Amino acid sequence: MVAGFGIGYATQTMVIVPAIGLGTAVAIIINQGAARSAAPLIRTTTVRGLVIGASVYAAVGTVLWLGSGTIARFAGGSAPVAASAAQYLRLVGPSLACVGVMLMLLTILEQVGAGFVAFTFNAVYFGLSVGFAGWLAAGSSDPAPFFRTLAVANLAALLAILPIVRYRIRRLIAGVERHRPDGPATADVVVSPAEAAADR
User: pLDDT 10s per residue in the chain (200 long)?
Assistant: First the structure.
């Protein structure tokens, strides 16, 4: 079980890393919008980033679910390890779509002045999900309850972070609009997250 979980978790780590890059790109544009007093740019960028992240990670979660057996056989050194890894990817894989989007949103929070909020949320999410899943699976030789609990925790964490991000972005926009100087808006300058990442 442990070796299979290790393979599954390593796969998870690999596929969610791009979420940090996407979150950073989105945050760069949001901060540019704040510097230009361009509230519409902040709104548009946040929504576009969320749509891009959800689309990418919905596809990733589907691939992990459908390809769980193939990935596990390729990475596992023995049949029992491969079986455990396949079970992890089959049960937890689809929820990694939630983890990818959540990580993207946490990265945005970190870079728009809410780093402590992001850190606290991440610590609570990890502690509760692993702790509760471990408690449920204690004394059982079947890892399925542990894996299913992780999947549910991933979905719950995404649902919990969405209103937090919405509140922080609204707060940022309110501050921008309150201090916006008179003159033409600069919101029509739209930079895509991909362009922002290329400029780094």
Answer: 566 667 777 777 888 889 999 999 999 999 999 988 888 999 999 999 999 999 999 998 898 888 887 877 777 667 777 788 888 888 888 898 899 999 999 999 999 989 999 999 999 998 888 888 777 767 667 778 888 888 899 999 999 999 999 999 999 998 888 876 654 444 444 455 555 555 55
Q: Is 95 among the domain residues? A: yes
**Start-to-end Cα distance in the chain:** 41
**Which structural domain, as residue segments, surrounds residue 77?**
2-179
In the chain, the amino acid numbered 149 is: T
Q: Cβ-count burial of 184 within 10 angstroms (0-12 exposed, 13-18 middle, 19+ buried)?
A: exposed
Interatomic CA distance for residues 149 and 169, integer angstroms: 30
The answer to the question of residue 94 being in a domain is yes
Residue showing tokens 């393979």: 7
Q: pTM of the predicted model, to two decimals?
A: 0.80
| Pairwise CA distance, residues 49 & 44, whole Å | 8
Q: Are 26 and 193 in contact (CB under 8 A)?
A: yes
The structural domain count of the chain equals: 1
Tokens of 71: 């990935």
